[in-house]
Design a protein that fits this description.
It is globular, with a radius of gyration of 13 Å. The protein is mainly alpha-helical and 100 residues long. It has one domain. The protein has a two-stranded antiparallel sheet. The structure holds zinc ion (2 copies). One zinc ion binds next to strand 1 and helix 3. One zinc ion binds next to strand 2 and helix 3.
């Protein structure tokens, strides 16, 4: 599947909504509910993502993550959260996929 085509599709929109329903529509780093996006920790299953492939981040944290780790992956996302996730969120396991 072409990334650009998918990322603007209804299918991806529905996938995001399903993710929000399950994990909350808040940034996994700072907890805001403004300008929420969904980051791909892996593109391996593009179009058929598992919950563990995704992570909700506000636009600012999403941009920062990609600036710090241009070739972002699961490991880099985890390193990013170690540095930027507020302690209040760290206690609530449900806000991030179980594997983090
Ligand atoms: Zn944030
Ligand atoms: Zn991303």
């Amino acid at each position: 599947m072409l990334y650009q085509r998918y990322i603007t599709s209804q299918r991806w929109k529905r996938r995001r909504l399903r993710y929000y329903k399950k994990f909350g529509r808040i940034c996994a780093a700072c907890g805001t509910d403004q300008n929420i996006t969904v980051h791909h920790m892996s593109y391996e299953r593009l179009g058929h993502e598992l919950d563990d492939d995704l992570l909700a981040l506000c636009l600012d944290h999403h941009r920062l993550l990609h600036r710090l780790y241009p070739h972002t992956c699961r490991e880099h996302t985890l390193l990013f959260l170690v540095d930027y996730q507020i302690p209040e969120l760290r206690k609530i396991g449900a806000l991030t996929p179980a594997t983090l």
